[in-house]
Amino acid sequence: MTETPELQLPEDRPLDIAGRVYQSRLLVGTGKYRDMVETGHAIEASGAEMITVAVRRTNLGQNPDEPNLLDVVSPDRYTILPNTAGCYTAKDAIRTCKLARELLDGHDLVKLEVLGEEKTLYPNMTETLVAAEELIKDGFKVMVYCSDDPLLAKRLEDMGCVAIMPLGAPIGSGLGIQNRYNIRLIVENAKVPVLVDAGVGTASDATIAMELGCDGVLMNTAIAQARDPIRMANAMRLAIEAGREAYLAGRMPKKLYASASSPIDGTFF
Amino acid sequence: MQVQVNGDAMELPDGATIAVLIEKMALAGKRLAVEVNQNIVPRSRYPEFSLSDGDRVEVVHAIGGG
Q1: Hey, which end of chain B has fewer CB within 10 Å, N or C?
Q2: Are residues A81 and A51 in contact, defined by beta-carbon separation less than 8 angstroms?
Q3: In the prediction, which pLDDT does A168 show?
């Protein structure tokens, strides 16, 4: 009797961003959670290793016993990715990044986002380009939130951004990947990681992003605003893994008509 | 003297340092970053950096965001 060889699932190369390797391709934000406990549990369930935070004024008269976000999401355990959310000009974004670098003891990886208007939170790409150039010159490693324009994405890569992060749909909208064709074009042209940032609403959206060949997905609201955020964090972890595996496996070609899976020969009726 | 801290006026003794301000705000030992008149002041300089009347100080920290 011949022995069945043991199944060996093919390995994937891990995600590499700015020279650091990540096993998880899911990046998560820390906004909109009920409290710090829920934030911590959701992050744990998501398996994410890179976590975004915002930089804001401390409140005068703040309760000193209130737990600090960075105590729950320790920089010793996670890669902290400070964002420039809320910035509408290159100047404000650069200022925010410099404060973040000081806050995180010289850690120079940032998520640059320069917004254009409140209604759509669509990126202001002219200001984004100005800020990216300045930040890169100043030694920052820039992961850039951008529109899904393949030419601008390439330009940001050529400037030296370490990851390109086009939106799938507006921030917090949960509409899913609206222009798969553009995301696909950006992925095909890029030599740095491409991550869909913003727009994911549920697990299948994350899977679609990964099936398109994205290197990862960054999300916040889809987890934080789910009825059960911890369960959704787990769903997203699985969705990212499933989408990545499907991309690597290579899907079957689509056909217009059916093709029987069981042989036609040998029927006895 | 009066300085602007996170947009609000605050009375401090003349020549007070950033370390004094942080103490007064009950934020000593917390992970934060400080900007005076839009220039970053490194943490190591808090004990020696004297503020001046009219300075605009920002004290920031990390909070939840996406």
Answers
A1: N
A2: yes
A3: 96
B6 has a chain A CB within 8 A of its CB: yes
* Crossing angle between the packed helical segments A229-249 and A36-46, to the nearest 10 degrees: 20
User: Measured between beta carbons, which residues in chain A are less than 8 angstroms from residue B8?
Assistant: 60
3-class SS at A92? helix
Please count the other Cβ atoms lying within 10 Å of the Cβ belonging to residue A253: 5
Using CB atoms, which residue from A30, A70, A95 is nearest to B38?
Answer: A95
Taking the C-alpha atoms of residue B61 and residue B19, their distance in angstroms, rounded to an integer, is 16
Average pLDDT over residues B34-50: 96
CB contact under 8 A, B25 and A58: yes
Task: Please choose, from the candidates A203, A212, A156, the residue with its C-alpha nearest in 3D space to the C-alpha of residue A179.
Answer: A212
Lowest mean pLDDT among A61-65, A87-91, A232-236, B37-41: A61-65
